[in-house]
Amino acid sequence: MRPSTTLSLSCILPLLLGPVQAQEPGQRWGSSNSSGYISKYATALRSAGLNGFADTLTKINGTAPATALFSQLASGRNFTVFAPDDAAIRRIPAAVSQNRTLLAEYISYHFVDGDFTNRSDTTSSGGRGPGASQTETATAAQATAALLGRRVVLRDEDWCGGGGGGSNNSSGPAPNPPPFAGIWPNVTLGRTLLNASALVALGAHKSQVLAWTRVSPDGNITILNQAADTTVGNATRWRNLSINPINNTLIPPGNLTTALTAIKASALQGVLGGVQIPSARGVNTPAVLALQRARGITVFVPANDAFTDAVNGSLQGLQGNASALTALVQNHYINGTTLYSTQLADNTTAVSAAGEPLHFVTNATGTFVAGANSTTARVVHPDVLLDNGVAHIIDQVLFAAESDPAQAASAYESATSAAAAYSTTETGPIGVGPGGARPTPLTSTEPGGGGGGGGGGMTTVTVQPSYR
Ligand SMILES: *[C@@H]1O[C@H](CO)[C@@H](O)[C@H](O)[C@H]1NC(C)=O
Ligand SMILES: *[C@@H]1O[C@H](CO)[C@@H](O)[C@H](O)[C@H]1NC(C)=O
Ligand SMILES: *[C@@H]1O[C@H](CO)[C@@H](O)[C@H](O)[C@H]1NC(C)=O
Ligand SMILES: *[C@@H]1O[C@H](CO)[C@@H](O)[C@H](O)[C@H]1NC(C)=O
Ligand SMILES: *[C@@H]1O[C@H](CO)[C@@H](O)[C@H](O)[C@H]1NC(C)=O
Ligand SMILES: *[C@@H]1O[C@H](CO)[C@@H](O)[C@H](O)[C@H]1NC(C)=O
Ligand SMILES: *[C@@H]1O[C@H](CO)[C@@H](O)[C@H](O)[C@H]1NC(C)=O
Ligand SMILES: *[C@@H]1O[C@H](CO)[C@@H](O)[C@H](O)[C@H]1NC(C)=O
Ligand SMILES: *[C@@H]1O[C@H](CO)[C@@H](O)[C@H](O)[C@H]1NC(C)=O
Ligand SMILES: *[C@@H]1O[C@H](CO)[C@@H](O)[C@H](O)[C@H]1NC(C)=O
Ligand SMILES: *[C@@H]1O[C@H](CO)[C@@H](O)[C@H](O)[C@H]1NC(C)=O
Ligand SMILES: *[C@@H]1O[C@H](CO)[C@@H](O)[C@H](O)[C@H]1NC(C)=O
């Protein structure tokens, strides 16, 4: 007979002994010995029934992105893993699975930096307990109290049980609370380990993010921006990894064109097709290409319904006025800065690429953005991820043809220098501060703009997503 809840010494010690000892796994399983760590991890995955994911780790072993990934995992820091089940692994497109380097890059997108465990969720089953609100954050003290409140029995050193699931297999996985997840349209975002330059062009060379949510308070966690519905299963914990099975393999975000097609924003695509954006050197570039070359961008995409007869009439009135049309497009994006929905703090302002204010309001009705010509639009679908930033779908055209090039240049400059100074990586939900308050007021805008960079030529292999 085994007790229903067991915890290993390696899970308890860091909690009891504090931060210095919490680093101990890093020394014990350090990067100099990452292959030993990965072999044990693969074995652990197999005992959790994730054979395909374990095989994939072995398959990518030796490629540059896998070496980087494995040494991070073996560092002892916490990571949240979204591990595709066997059927999902079998569905990886040949164009990805046959290129081990590309496959390793895709696999890196399944690892999120940090421990997202929602310790206040007391259900060890479906990951949908009453504590699943994103406004709850457990402190280390609360976590310790919660763990010590349970019956603690030392056993297999690697599996750390967090719940009352009752595994009878001493080497098998123990249940763990699910990750934090906002309730739609609130989204939880985590920074992944994918930073391959062919797939990601965020400011400050940041890694790509992953977005997830719960469609209803008692629903399963769903990964956003994926072509197929991707559901997160019950979590387990192994050493420093919280392992969350998913029934689909994740595809990193593609370019703006791919995203606009996926969300069927054909009206904006039509407008972009007729507009040129002047570059720093005074050369005009088609808007779509200019947007795709930016490093770090936030695009407010009016839904097709926003193009009413009145709006189309006003647009008609601007035909022949190229600079007004350019300003109108530029008033729909921020150049050099990526602001996810959780960072659109109430009563804050950012500067559009036209140099005009974009004012954000977040209240009980939702998140709103007001443009220079006092149109207020509601964000109806946040966080459509792009390889170089993020898009938010809004319900109105921000009809503003004003521009202030000096303001635009200075906002871009400060985004670029903020990016240069950027050094830390988020290890918790992006835009959610200690205590779970959402969103954290922006002290400055999130660093976005990187240096020049060749831009263009993204080599994303994607299936056509139909984002939810
Ligand atoms: C990865 O390759 C190294 C060196 O070739 C080997 O020692 C290790 O066992 C391999 N790891 C896995 C998980 O296959
Ligand atoms: C990793 O997560 C565990 C459990 O969630 C926590 O107790 C520990 O302090 C974290 N370790 C580090 C190095 O952050
Ligand atoms: C494999 O993928 C890598 C990384 O995306 C890419 O650089 C390389 O050209 C690809 N190799 C082939 C043969 O397509
Ligand atoms: C989690 O496990 C419980 C049984 O322990 C099951 O009822 C539930 O459907 C599982 N949730 C998911 C998302 O697989
Ligand atoms: C949650 O996922 C489980 C396992 O895939 C499934 O059986 C269940 O129907 C899902 N629940 C909801 C509310 O979608
Ligand atoms: C994943 O599971 C959910 C819930 O059971 C289901 O609705 C969805 O279609 C599944 N996705 C795939 C790709 O099988
Ligand atoms: C962003 O600003 C830089 C510097 O002014 C400019 O060269 C570039 O064209 C702008 N990009 C977009 C998409 O507006
Ligand atoms: C918004 O911020 C401004 C300037 O900081 C302040 O004067 C104003 O009272 C705030 N409005 C609301 C509704 O909080
Ligand atoms: C939230 O802000 C929007 C835009 O300013 C406003 O229209 C709406 O009435 C506000 N809702 C509440 C509940 O204050
Ligand atoms: C403000 O918006 C209206 C339509 O709502 C438009 O007719 C007018 O030209 C806009 N003014 C400027 C300066 O963009
Ligand atoms: C989303 O977050 C806001 C701000 O924290 C909160 O007021 C709102 O209730 C949340 N909405 C849902 C559906 O959880
Ligand atoms: C966007 O990405 C798709 C898929 O990789 C690619 O086929 C397309 O050429 C890209 N579009 C542009 C304008 O770069």
Automatic annotation (TrEMBL):
Database matches in Gene3D superfamilies: FAS1 domain (2.30.180.10)
UniProt-listed Pfam families: Fasciclin
GO cellular component, one term: extracellular space
Signal sequence coordinates: 1-22
Biased composition, class Gly residues, residue ranges: 447-458
Keyword Transcription regulation: no
Chain intervals with Polar residues compositional bias: 459-468
PROSITE patterns: FAS1
Signal in keyword set: yes
Keywords: Signal
Any one biological process term the GO annotation gives: macroautophagy
Domain FAS1: 37-228, 243-398
UniProt region (Disordered), positions on chain: 118-139, 159-179, 426-468
Highest taxon of the lineage: Eukaryota
InterPro entries: Adhesion/Biosynth-related, FAS1_dom_sf, FAS1_domain
PANTHER family for the chain: FAS1 DOMAIN-CONTAINING PROTEIN, PERIOSTIN-RELATED
Protein name per its UniProtKB record: FAS1 domain-containing protein
Organism: Hypholoma sublateritium (strain FD-334 SS-4)
